[in-house]
């Protein structure tokens, strides 16, 4: 091992580690416990006990897989809801509207913590938004000039001590101070020009306190996650983040010296650290974790790395393919030539983006399984690479061969490359991506649909009731026949149609009861995908998804939604909107093959959807919505990659939708409010109607739409479905009046922010009634 500074000046660091591990539990134990607590069915003590047991089992399990316990290889990175909310709790930055929930020491109890996350009465919860380019959502801190920071939660220290009591020396993980503020938004009362990062100097003493407390408790290393260092897509420019980093770590690493604090490992996952590496190297932190899946290792020695530990994140924390260990070891070996004190094998990101284990997937095809690695299998990969690093290649000879064999078997397996799918994609001409002029479509659709001004509709799903889920679970177990199951779903559709008719909506939906998830459902019905039974991954709070595995060439063996949609249309004389998930979102929310460009994979999915839309059209359906809520999410973190991404993503959407007649109306749905950021791409989709989230931001996006001269129709959401609140008629009327003023009347649709699947009927019915009452009132003013 090359080392310019004796590694002995550093506390010992393991040869292999992971940046984080799933925390929901292999069978979603934490989800079940915390949801029971919210429902008033269990006490906070019981939830704490479940959580402590889960943490204990996780430590034991990871040790059993080979991570060391005498040096900090196992991260201590638990959360009841979200790690950014935990940081808010740690630094006492609870928004003023929840001030009554904190005690004299500034502490929130579990109930208070949950309320900040979920809201109550008129108090909106913290806003939820995507964590970098993932399907994980964090709660946005609200920071103003008046925010008081204080060390308000000793949870991190307690969880570290809990590990120590079990003889496991863990590495506590915190969201770093720079990323914490970079992800925050200013409070509503903050003056123009204020940014949360302005408060860095005031925040740092709290982090210094935590570091001191951790050192006192015996922590040798701590991990501070600073992914803000890699992103060019945040509100703050990257230069400012780098400056803030230098300032922060002068205080935390230079002025606060060891042994008063643990050694600091700065983790920078999700993209290439690029020039940010220089600021980290120049600081006095003791270690840096690089994402070497998304980023590249430096090619020449970096002077500042002498004396530091470098964790080479070669094992993908964000996808599930088994690694070519030989190639990964090579990357680590090259990293060893760059002058660091020590190189360790690591994951590129926390493993909480992948499911717990393949061992709980008995139904998964054995060959496919041999190509995959979930969190536990990735831990084993790390342990193997660590052995290779310390003992040499020969020591892991067998494992290297096995890994190479798996990679080779995947390349030649049947279904991975299917000539008929390839030929169809290769023979596409530009025509396949283009519909006729919008003006003609608009006239043809108006004639066919004959809708009133301000047409009302919903985004697709209606509440997924416990009864629906129970029926599906029973059907999956073989306890309910397919015939019975389908009849139950048709009964649900009849109820949903009746409800929409009685409320008076203009364009109806079937409510999506038959879908477990808007991506998994399509994956189950397309060739080229596999799905898991227990492969749960946290999306936000207690909500999880089972991302599908897109492993082969994609095609549609049979129509998927046509029967359900046709049945729904038979129940009503109003138009029923067909409902599909778009190619970009299907990719974003699945684990996708990494052996070909995403654009090729997207076009295969698009062609399958195109056939589905053609079949819907032939069945008499006049409106089809193709949801693309993940269009913004997949936007690369680096600006230089934006154009290429927007090009292929927009083209795949167009490929899926451009096969229809002019009088068939294409809708799309995007559920975030940053319309301005990607307005060019939204325009490129060429959808006739686009619904978008707008209620929480009070229709601010309408200005973007008007300014951009956007020609087609939009449905800015008037009901925030992420909250249990029921909006009143006046509130909706105010939003609609603002909308009518901002853009042309014939461009405007009325709808909620997103689907209603996570809500209850007790909330949905009165909310939709408010929407219809407000729409009628506004229509009356137009006459
Ligand atoms: N993939 C995806 N990503 C997305 C979204 C989305 O809809 N899908 N929406 C945005 C917000 N994210 C979300 C993520 C998850 C959920 C969600 O509601 N998840 C459900 C699970 C959905 C599901 O897969 N349901 C299955 C399985 C349900 C289940 O838990 N069944 C019980 C048994 C049934 C019972 O007895 O109750 C079990 O398996 O134990 C089904 O309906 O079939 C949950 O966590 O509770 C909502 C939004 C962004 N990202
Ligand atoms: C996350 S976007 C959801 C769109 C889907 N059609 C629904 O209504 O649930
Ligand atoms: Zn949505």
Provide an overview of this structure:
By secondary structure, this protein is of the alpha/beta class. It folds into two domains: 7-412, Alpha-Beta Barrel (TIM Barrel); 419-782, TIM Barrel (Alpha-Beta Barrel), CATH 3.20.20.210. It binds the ligand Nc1nc2c(c(=O)[nH]1)N[C@@H](CNc1ccc(C(=O)N[C@@H](CCC(=O)N[C@@H](CCC(=O)N[C@@H](CCC(=O)O)C(=O)O)C(=O)O)C(=O)O)cc1)CN2, methionine and zinc ion. Residues 135, 464, 466, 469-470, 472-473, 516-519, 539-540, 543-546, 589, 758 line the site of the ligand Nc1nc2c(c(=O)[nH]1)N[C@@H](CNc1ccc(C(=O)N[C@@H](CCC(=O)N[C@@H](CCC(=O)N[C@@H](CCC(=O)O)C(=O)O)C(=O)O)C(=O)O)cc1)CN2. The site of zinc ion has 6 residues, from loops. Residues 454-775 form the Cobalamin-independent methionine synthase MetE C-terminal/archaeal domain. Residues 17-337 form the Cobalamin-independent methionine synthase MetE N-terminal domain.
């Amino acid at each position: 091992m090359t080392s310019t500074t004796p590694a002995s000046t550093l506390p010992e660091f393991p040869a292999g580690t992971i940046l984080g591990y799933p925390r929901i539990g292999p069978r979603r134990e934490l989800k079940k416990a915390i949801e029971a607590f919210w429902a008033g069915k269990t006490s906070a003590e019981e939830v704490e006990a479940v959580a402590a047991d889960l943490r204990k089992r996780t430590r034991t399990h990871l040790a059993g897989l080979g991570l060391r316990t005498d040096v900090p290889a196992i991260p201590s990175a638990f959360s009841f809801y979200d790690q950014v909310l935990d940081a808010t709790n740690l630094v006492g930055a609870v928004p003023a509207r929840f001030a009554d929930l904190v005690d004299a020491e500034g502490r929130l109890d579990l109930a208070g913590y949950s309320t900040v996350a979920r809201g109550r009465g008129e108090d909106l919860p913290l806003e939820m938004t995507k964590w970098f380019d993932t399907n994980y959502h964090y709660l946005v801190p609200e920071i103003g000039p008046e925010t008081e920071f204080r060390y308000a939660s000793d949870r991190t220290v307690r969880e570290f001590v809990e590990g120590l009591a079990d003889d496991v020396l863990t590495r506590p993980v915190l969201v770093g101070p720079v990323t914490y503020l970079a992800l925050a938004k200013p409070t509503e009362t903050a003056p123009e020009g204020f940014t949360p990062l302005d408060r860095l100097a005031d925040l740092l003493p709290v982090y210094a306190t935590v570091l001191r407390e951790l050192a006192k408790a015996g922590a040798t290393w701590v991990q501070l996650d600073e992914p803000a260092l890699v992103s060019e897509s945040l509100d703050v420019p990257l230069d400012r983040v780098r400056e803030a980093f230098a300032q922060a770590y002068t205080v935390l690493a230079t002025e606060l010296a060891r042994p008063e604090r643990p050694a600091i490992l700065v983790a920078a996952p999700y993209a290439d650290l690029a020039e940010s590496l220089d600021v980290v190297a120049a600081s006095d932190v003791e270690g840096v974790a690089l994402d070497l899946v998304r980023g590249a290792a430096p090619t020449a020695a970096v002077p500042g790395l002498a004396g530091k530990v470098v964790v080479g994140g070669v094992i993908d924390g964000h996808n599930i393919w088994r690694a070519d260990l030989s190639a990964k070891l090579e990357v680590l070996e090259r990293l060893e030539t760059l002058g660091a004190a020590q190189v360790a094998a690591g994951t590129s990101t926390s493993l909480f983006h992948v499911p717990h284990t393949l061992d709980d997937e008995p139904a998964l095809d054995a060959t496919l399984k041999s190509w995959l690695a979930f969190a536990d299998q990735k831990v084993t990969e790390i342990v193997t690479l660590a052995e290779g690093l310390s003992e040499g290649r020969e020591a892991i000879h067998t494992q290297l061969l096995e890994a190479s064999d798996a990679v080779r078997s995947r390349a030649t397996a049947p279904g991975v490359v299917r000539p008929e799918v390839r030929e169809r994609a290769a023979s596409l001409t530009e025509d396949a991506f283009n519909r006729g002029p919008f003006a003609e479509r608009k006239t043809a659709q108006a004639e066919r649909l004959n809708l009133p001004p301000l047409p009302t509709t919903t985004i697709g799903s209606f509440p997924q009731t416990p009864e629906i889920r129970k029926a599906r679970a029973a059907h999956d177990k073989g306890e309910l026949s397919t015939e019975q199951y389908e009849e139950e779903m048709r009964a649900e559709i009849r109820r949903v149609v009746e409800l929409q008719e009685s409320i008076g909506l203009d364009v109806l939906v079937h409510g999506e009861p038959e879908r477990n998830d808007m991506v998994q459902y399509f994956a189950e019905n397309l060739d080229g995908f596999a799905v898991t039974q227990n492969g749960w991954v946290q999306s936000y709070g207690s909500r999880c998804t089972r991302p599908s595995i897109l492993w082969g060439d994609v095609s549609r063996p049979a129509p998927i939604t046509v029967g359900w949609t046709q049945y729904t249309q038979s129940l009503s004389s109003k138009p029923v909107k067909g409902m599909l998930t778009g190619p970009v979102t299907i990719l974003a929310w699945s684990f996708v093959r990494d052996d070909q460009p995403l654009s090729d994979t997207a076009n295969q999915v698009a062609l399958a959807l195109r056939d589905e839309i053609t079949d819907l059209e032939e069945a008499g359906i006049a409106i089809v919505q193709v949801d693309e809520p993940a269009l913004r999410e997949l936007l690369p973190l680096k600006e230089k990659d934006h154009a290429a991404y927007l090009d292929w993503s927009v083209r795949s959407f167009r490929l899926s939708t451009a096969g229809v007649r002019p009088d068939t109306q294409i809708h799309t749905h995007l559920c975030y409010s940053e319309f301005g950021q990607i307005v060019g791409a939204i325009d490129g989709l060429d959808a006739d109607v686009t619904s978008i989230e707008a209620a929480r931001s009070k229709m601010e996006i309408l200005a973007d739409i008007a300014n951009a001269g956007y020609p087609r129709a939009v449905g800015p959401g008037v009901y925030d479905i992420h909250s249990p609140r029921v909006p009143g008629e006046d509130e909706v009327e105010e939003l609609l009046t603002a909308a009518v003023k901002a853009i042309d009347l014939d461009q405007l649709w009325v709808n909620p922010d997103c689907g209603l699947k996570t809500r209850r009927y007790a909330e949905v019915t009165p909310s939709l009634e408010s929407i219809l009452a407000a729409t009628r009132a506004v229509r009356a003013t137009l006459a």
